[in-house]
């Protein structure tokens, strides 16, 4: 079977390496499908025999609307990072939820306060996952209308991006899902904070968090923890988790 990652400017992605580590003895393939529109990418995938694709930036929010059917997590987060093609229908799933939950499960405690930077597909599902873990969640976004609308829908708090420093001071956990380099929290002291950053290529916060003796969780953790359930949905078979984790430990 053929699978892949659909997104824009994704040549850096480690997903094909993780897939191969998870299924070393299978003939399934996992390719990078780099497209400027999700519609063109899906048309290519379906016409070339792909059984499903992971979805990455900037298409996660669009993906859930393209699908014929969406499972609960995609509906709740209004985003999808996985599409399956079955019987001329498209089925949407969201395994980013598990990427967040499993990355933070040893650190997040009920009653803690968490701040999420960004309200794209990754930020939305991060807010949902943290809320389900019993945390008080504040989501922040550069576009106020988008952030406020989702916060109301998800029953979490919203703050302006200009107020993020004050909210981060009150938070135990900070999740940064902004997909590009930014200057938010550039003067912030991360001592005692737990920080999960979705972006693993040229991350924004890694150096500052480590210098301030905070706890930094790389986007590689998120990537691996969402990949494992993704690959099982694709193949119907559990991947070799030990091999995947061994590979990821080298990054």
Topology, pairings included?
Elements: E1 2-7, H1 15-22, E2 29-34, H2 38-47, E3 50-55, H3 60-66, E4 69-70, H4 72-77, E5 82-86, E6 89-93, H5 96-104, E7 113-117, H6 121-132, E8 136-141, H7 144-154, E9 157-160, H8 164-170, E10 173-176, E11 194-197, H9 206-211, E12 215-217, H10 219-235, H11 241-248
Parallel strand pairs: 1-2, 1-3, 4-6, 7-8, 7-10, 8-9, 10-11, 11-12
Antiparallel strand pairs: 3-5, 5-6
Key features?
alpha/beta, Rossmann fold, 6-stranded parallel sheet, 251 residues, 11 helices, 2 domains, 40% helix
Summarize the structure in words.
This protein has 251 residues and is of the alpha/beta class. It has two domains: 2-94 and 221-248, Leucine Dehydrogenase, chain A, domain 1 (Rossmann fold, 3-Layer(aba) Sandwich), CATH 3.40.50.10860; 98-217, NAD(P)-binding Rossmann-like Domain (Rossmann fold, 3-Layer(aba) Sandwich), CATH 3.40.50.720. Helices cover 40% and strands 22% of the residues. It has eleven helices and twelve strands. The protein has helices spanning 15-22, 38-47, 60-66, 72-77, 96-104, 121-132, 144-154, 164-170, 206-211, 219-235, 241-248; strands spanning 2-7, 29-34, 50-55, 69-70, 82-86, 89-93, 113-117, 136-141, 157-160, 173-176, 194-197, 215-217. A six-stranded mixed sheet has the order 2-1-3-5-6-4, with helices on both faces. It has a six-stranded parallel sheet with strand order 9-8-7-10-11-12, with helices on both faces. A hairpin with a 2-residue loop joins strand 5 and strand 6 (89-93). It starts with a strand and ends with a helix. The model has no long low-confidence stretch (mean pLDDT 96).
């Amino acid at each position: 079977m053929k699978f892949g990652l659909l997104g824009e400017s994704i040549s850096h992605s480690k997903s094909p390496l993780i897939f191969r580590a998870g299924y070393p003895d299978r003939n399934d393939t996992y390719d990078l499908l780099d497209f400027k529109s999700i519609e063109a990418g899906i048309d290519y995938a379906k016409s070339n025999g792909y059984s499903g694709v992971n979805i990455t930036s900037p298409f996660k929010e669009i993906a859930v609307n393209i699908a014929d059917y969406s499972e609960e997590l995609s509906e709740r987060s209004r985003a999808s990072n996985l599409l399956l093609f079955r019987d001329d229908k498209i089925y949407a799933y969201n395994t980013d939820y598990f990427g967040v939950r499993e990355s933070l499960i040893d650190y997040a405690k009920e009653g803690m306060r968490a701040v999420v930077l960004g309200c794209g597909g990754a930020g939305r599902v991060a807010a949902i996952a943290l809320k389900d873990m019993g945390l008080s969640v504040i989501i922040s976004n550069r576009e106020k209308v988008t952030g406020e609308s989702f916060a109301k829908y998800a029953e979490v708090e919203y703050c302006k991006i200009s107020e993020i420093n004050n909210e981060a001071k009150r938070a135990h956990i900070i999740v940064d899902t902004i997909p590009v380099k930014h200057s938010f929290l550039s003067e912030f002291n991360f001592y005692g904070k737990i920080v999960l950053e979705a972006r693993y290529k040229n991350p924004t916060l890694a150096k500052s968090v480590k210098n301030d003796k905070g706890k930094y969780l790389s986007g590689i953790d998120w990537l691996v923890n969402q990949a494992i359930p993704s690959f099982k949905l694709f193949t119907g078979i559990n991947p070799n988790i030990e091999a995947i984790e061994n590979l990821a430990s080298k990054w």
